[in-house]
Amino acid sequence: MVGAFEADMARLGGRAPLARVLLAALAWAEGPGLPWDHIWVPVALALAGDGGPGKCPVSRTDVRWLLAVAGAYVVVDTGPGGRAVYRVRDELVAAHLRGEPGDGEPVGARRDRVARAEWQRRRAHAQPRLTAPLLATVPAREPGPRRAGATADSSPGAAAPPKARSPA
Length: 168
Description:
By secondary structure, the protein is mainly alpha-helical. It has six helices and three strands, in the order ααβααββαα.
């Protein structure tokens, strides 16, 4: 998918940096996407100003142009308040635009795999730290046979629980 994207960007010639900066803004969006009004263009300008993908001025007219020539890479969704929001359609292309290394594995799957491995590592590390203090609260068992009816908190010198009376 990234190869086809690069071929499409090359087809845009001198305007490819503009398309890249507009799409990069969407690639960094979280949630359902970026609204066109007051958000998409300023984010793209910030990326372009930081020496991001192409230093170029960006306007609302450029957004219309991008949607006309490379709209296949953009999906429109409904965001908060019922407003239209935009994001990059393909997660691999979005990762490419964010500059993430690509190994062919979808970003969502890679993120899930890494998160699962990190959780397992933390769990393995935390389990002894959690169980040791809990086990320390359990009274040590005295050597010798256990009495019938003894409970975990009864000690050899403690009174045994009262026996139930049988009906006479």
